[in-house]
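Record 1 of the preview.
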Amino acid sequence: MPARRFFVPDVHRLGELVAIDGSDAHKIAHVLRLRDGDEIEIVDSAGAVFAARLESRDENLAARLTERRASHAGSEVAIDVAQAIPKGAKMEFVVEKLSELGVRALLPFESERTVVRDPRDAKLERWRRVARSAAQQSGRSDVIAIEEPAAFTQVCERMDRYDLVLLPWELAEPQPLRGRLPELIAGARRILVVIGPEGGFSHAEAELAQAARARPIWLGPRILRTETAALAVAAILGYELLGR
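->
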């Protein structure tokens, strides 16, 4: 069913006829080749999941909400990731995989060693399209929120909104995360993971983040690529928090 799950704006009720347009309408009609009477899933802005039956109205595609379905609850702990923008299409990979891993929001940022060309506008829209598609594929009842790219200093200014901020850094004290993590996340309900650029954080940036309450963590003796580090920490947190 994930391939037939579609997100629509606004909050809806059982029995409503909901319009479907844009790329979703194209996918339904020309990729999935569904017809009137076929069933899909609709998720509204409140995260409510409905079974729906396709109905055409004056050449426009629509679906009638026929049944309310239970959504799969995620962890009670919200995990956000602040990600230094990598080169090329790597960010699309990060968006897709963090969505699958249940991350709530992604905060792209630029730092001293970030090498990007015009990360805004078209790229941001493309990342959001990838997020939407990944949510449909993975069966999420929400879409990972992707904010506009910001400066690293702006990310630091937001750190006080979180119960815990984790800063993977190759120069952190080499303490195995397996032993530290349970104590670090105890009682935390909002966690931010801050992933540095391909060239790593500068000492000044690491000091700035620590002054804003970020906790440096060590991910082992091997240096991970920026896109690998984001997925590794999200997966580790997901494992540790599962069932809490």
